[in-house]
Amino acid sequence: MLKFDRQGLIPTVIQDNTTGEVLMVAFMNEEALRLTRETGYTHFFSRSRNAIWRKGEQSGNVQEVRDILVNCEENSLLIRVIQHGEAACHEGYRSCYYRRLLPDNAYAARA
Amino acid sequence: MLKFDRQGLIPTVIQDNTTGEVLMVAFMNEEALRLTRETGYTHFFSRSRNAIWRKGEQSGNVQEVRDILVNCEENSLLIRVIQHGEAACHEGYRSCYYRRLLPDNAYAARA
Fold first, then answer.
1. From residue A57, how far is each of A80, A84, A90, B98 by CA, in Å?
2. Which of these, A37, A109, A3, A86, lies nearest to B25 by C-alpha position?
3. What is the pLDDT, as a whole number, of residue B98?
4. How far apart are CA B42 and CA B17, in angstroms?
5. Chain B nearest-CA residue for A24
6. SS3 content of chain A, % helix, strand, coil (to 5)
7. Cβ under 8 Å to B: A residues 3-32
8. A111 HSE (CA, 13 A, CB side)
9. Inter-chain contact B101–A70, Cβ cutoff 8 Å?
10. A111 has pLDDT over 80
């Protein structure tokens, strides 16, 4: 049985089903997971807004679910998706991980 | 600047640098991240044991860091690694995501 944390959330990795690129990490609660499975498109729970959101509801860059995988400890998810539109990241990048962490804690653009 | 959560943790995705496979998700605190960067091998913070552990310290299946990436919101990490040994998962699987979530909340082996 899936283990949601004390806030009722489970961390979820979103991976491009075609390229294998990791696009983002977000949190789901039970309702967001239910909506994701029912609709076939990713939904998440926003901790800052305390609300469920459908990924791409503003931008149109929705994520079509291809596979939902569970880890050994049943406390995280890996969802493989078809990413619609150009970008998964609200900053306009394909992936949210567009920067590298440098030794001095600064960032550089990903090579 | 990196944003650790209220418990001082940041979720970290570990990805095989060669295959792109997502191997696991774990949490780091500042000290685990510092050790990871200093040694070049992943260290995590265990919430259940309240302690830092070096991945592979028991099994020998250590993870050699190739790249540390930061997301747009600076609240998660993606670390690309060379996975030593056969398995990243303590259950003996290459990846912790060896099961698929089924519509009835049961699991099946990943295809």
1. 19, 12, 12, 31
2. A3
3. 98
4. 14
5. B71
6. 10, 40, 50
7. 11, 13, 15, 19-22, 24-25
8. 5
9. yes
10. no
- Please tell me the pTM assigned to this model: 0.96
Closest by alpha carbon to A89, among B78, B109, B31, B105? B78
Contact residues, chain B, for A97 at CB < 8 Å: 69-71, 78
- The answer to whether B101 contacts chain A (CB < 8 Å) is yes
Q: Which residues pair with B55 in a beta bridge?
A: none
CA distance B3 to A14: 20
Pairing of strands B10-16, B77-83: parallel
| Distance in angstroms (rounded) separating the CA atoms of residues A31 and B35 | 37
The answer for residues whose C-beta is within 8 angstroms of residue B28's C-beta and 6 or more apart is B9, B10, B12, B36, B43, B44, B45, B77
DSSP state of A75: S
CA distances from B43 to A33, A110, B10, B20, B49 (A): 30, 23, 12, 20, 14
Confidence of residue A105 (pLDDT cuts 50, 70, 90): confident
Distances (CA, A) of B76 to A84, A96, A98, B106: 23, 10, 12, 29
| ipTM field | 0.95
Q: How many CB atoms lie within 10 A of CB B32?
A: 24
Residue showing tokens 């747009």: B72
